[in-house]
Amino acid sequence: MLAKVLILVLGVVIFTICDALYGIFRGEGNTKIVMIASVVGTLTNIILDPIFIYLLNFGISGASYATLIAITVSLLILAYNLFIKKACYVTVKLSKFKPNLKIIGDLIRVGIPSTFIEITVAVSFFIMTSIIMMVGDSRGLAVYTGALRITEFGFIPMLGLASGTTSVIGATYGAKSFEKLKTAYFYTIKIGVLMEIIIVALIMLLSPILAYLFTYTEVSMGIHKELVKALRIVPLYLLFTPFILTTSAMFQGIGKGEKSLIIAIFRSLICHISYAYLFAVILGLKMFGIYSGLVTGEFTAGIFAFLFGILAIKALIKYKEG
Predict the structure, then answer these.
(1) 3-state secondary structure (DSSP) of residue 41
(2) DSSP state letters, 130-150
(3) DSSP code at position 233
(4) End-to-end C-alpha distance for the chain, whole angstroms
(5) Domain range spanning residue 44?
(6) 85 within 8 A of 96, measured Cβ to Cβ
(7) Domain C-terminal end among 78, 97, 116
């Protein structure tokens, strides 16, 4: 476990630069490049995970190596489009860099909550991994990681929707068109839920085939049946993700990043961990408890985020009216 954390800490520079480049392309609305980098990175991770964990016998730390290499691949794609292909309106040159306290202040105000959100996700995964090791072993971890990696394909489209929502809501908020803000919020959730229903159905239907993405080697074939079972439960959490991501995107769009952080903490550190521990350890459901805890936690966090978002929008409309 310590080796896994150490590897990821050493790769913090790569993670940071990659996120910065993602932000540049998203800010320009160039989601195609963002999508390509994300999908290629995810595919790389899916391919390398079983190789490092089983074939090279690196165990848990192998997942960290795979993640680091996958992020590096995404970074190279983004850097190529920014510096070589120049598929961006922004020109990055150190010679033109001039510190501006106002811009730095704005970045810090929005960036610090986002930073803590990433930390929250990392801490949550660390704790979840520990719980998995309590009720299972590296085999269970491989199944859980594999299921998450595959369901990430259903997560990526929603990230794109949320990214676009941040820009739209930011524009409506600046124009004080709070009714349009409300419309954009509910429309994004509606489209997101419909999209995720289709994605979840496809993942569950194709689970025996998708499982081979992680079990194509002779060593990893042993977890195929377990991974298929996981893929018929874990993807259900995607149904509630639109409520969470859309609400977080809305708060970021109106400059209330700290409220997005509240949602992230409640979701990752309270809901996911609490339900996983309750079902897997206390109730003794083991890996089934881990999967059920993830889905139940996402459901609870989705309700919380949705109510939080509705109250915030009502407050904005009420403020404008009076």
Answers:
(1) helix
(2) HHHHHHS-HHHHHHHHHHHHH
(3) T
(4) 55
(5) 1-97
(6) no
(7) 97
